Amino acid sequence: MAEKAKGKMAQAKGKAKEAAGKVTGNERMEAEGKMDQVEGKVRETAGKAEEQARGVADSARSRRKKP
Known about the structure:
This protein is 93% helix and 0% strand.
C-alpha cells in the first residue's frame, strides 16, 4: 500500500512541477515534472503488483491449512 501511495504522490508532484515549468517557460522543470510522473506511475504499478502477489500468497496459504 505504501508504494502505491508514494507513486500517487510522485505523480501529483510531477504534474505540479510540469505545470510550473510551462508557466515559467522553464523547460528543464517541465521535463523533470514529466519524469516525476513516470516514476510515480512505475511505483504505483509496482505497489499494485506487490499487493496482488501478497494476495496470491495469502490465498495459497489459506488453502493449505484447510483439511
